[in-house]
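Homework-ish question, so no full write-ups if that breaks the rules, but can someone show me the predicted structure for this set?
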Amino acid sequence: MIKGLDHIAVAVSDLDAAVKLWTETFQVAVSHREIIQDQLVEVAMIKLGSLHVELISPISSDSPVAKFIEKRGEALHHFAVASESTQDELDRMKQSGIPLIDEMARAGAKGSRIGFIHPQALGGVLVEIVDHQKE
Amino acid sequence: MIKGLDHIAVAVSDLDAAVKLWTETFQVAVSHREIIQDQLVEVAMIKLGSLHVELISPISSDSPVAKFIEKRGEALHHFAVASESTQDELDRMKQSGIPLIDEMARAGAKGSRIGFIHPQALGGVLVEIVDHQKE
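A: Not a homework solution, just the prediction itself:
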């Protein structure tokens, strides 16, 4: 079951410049920053009340985010919905013939499990499913 | 003060086709549908748990959403944050020199007040501020 939003991700080419824009506009601090080697991105997290905005910046031209920016420019990249179980959602979608990037949930940040729906399923929009349940 | 997310909006060229994709993928129904003449769009609202996703489709080629789709394709269009007072946020931003589309809050759906930050403020990302306070 989908519970609601987990986070919104924005693709940016210059992370320091983007952090400056977002923190100055909303008068907030960065709550977390890390390099995710797996996806070849550096991430900075901004909290707007209960909303988590993830600024993601490629650290290599091979990063999917670099390719996204090349094609679409700096823009909203994806949003993630929080679920009871990422694997259950993926299983249900697979059975319904929904195109998926991930058929098996994989490890996300802080012990979460994540899976991406193929953008083809949603007219070009990339949506991630996340759960923070412990096994 | 920003409290959290209000909604995410997705620009689509064919509203019926988009409704079919989103409702089939997430096994949910459309909760609301209306034409907003003011913005030359038709809107369908999908609820994913507590998350409101607004599918917005131009009803005229003069619509800003038509121009967005022409330039960027069907994609995430903007997100809206819920605030205590839209006007207070706009006032604070104006004083800080943040570029705004709306310096004065205007009427949104269901008695809300809305205002848009200029995308220039956030590296090309369009963010709306909403409050649902009664005067």
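Now go work out the reasoning yourself. Hint: The two ends of chain B are 17 Å apart (CA to CA).
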